[in-house]
């Protein structure tokens, strides 16, 4: 870890809550809102989230699987995300979600008209904004956790 965590303190709660309470609480609320209020399908949500986790290298994010009313993506889904270009496990929306996440994280200047034409054929404008906010959250907070070295020890509050 790159941040000194006092003995007995849970790292993510300490870093996000105690160290920067004004910013950390707002960041945590945004991070949790992405899960609580999404309208995106589980597979497209997880494809984008896991692709960002792969780019960030966040150990916690790579290990985490979103649970919606007892439903999670299947074993092997992470491998399919790695192979998003060629996997037969994804429909067009799921593949686009993984592609968008990767390009958002690595080449946002390269999001050209050809990409947007494919994206708007499958996603509504509201869904594109929602997916963009989700990806932005995962990119920022997963990267923060990894850069600070707390991704291998963090847990979400209440889990």
TrEMBL record:
<feature type="domain" description="Carboxymuconolactone decarboxylase-like">
    <location>
        <begin position="22"/>
        <end position="102"/>
    </location>
</feature>
<dbReference type="InterPro" id="IPR029032">
    <property type="entry name" value="AhpD-like"/>
</dbReference>
<dbReference type="Pfam" id="PF02627">
    <property type="entry name" value="CMD"/>
</dbReference>
<protein>
    <submittedName>
        <fullName>Carboxymuconolactone decarboxylase family protein</fullName>
    </submittedName>
</protein>
<dbReference type="InterPro" id="IPR003779">
    <property type="entry name" value="CMD-like"/>
</dbReference>
């Amino acid at each position: 870890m790159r941040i000194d965590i006092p003995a007995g303190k849970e790292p993510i709660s300490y870093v996000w809550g105690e160290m920067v309470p004004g910013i950390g609480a707002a960041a945590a609320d945004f991070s949790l809102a992405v899960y609580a209020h999404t309208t995106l399908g589980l597979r497209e949500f997880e494809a984008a989230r896991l692709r960002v986790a792969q780019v960030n290298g966040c150990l916690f994010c790579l290990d985490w699987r979103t649970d919606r009313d007892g439903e999670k993506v299947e074993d092997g889904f992470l491998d399919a995300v790695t192979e998003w270009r060629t996997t037969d496990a994804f429909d067009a929306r799921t593949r686009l979600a993984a592609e968008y996440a990767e390009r958002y994280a690595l080449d946002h200047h390269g999001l050209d008209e050809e990409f947007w034409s494919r994206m708007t054929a499958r996603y509504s404008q509201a869904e594109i904004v929602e997916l963009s906010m989700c990806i932005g959250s995962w990119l920022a907070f997963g990267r923060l956790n990894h850069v600070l070295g707390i991704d291998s020890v963090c847990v979400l509050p209440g889990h």
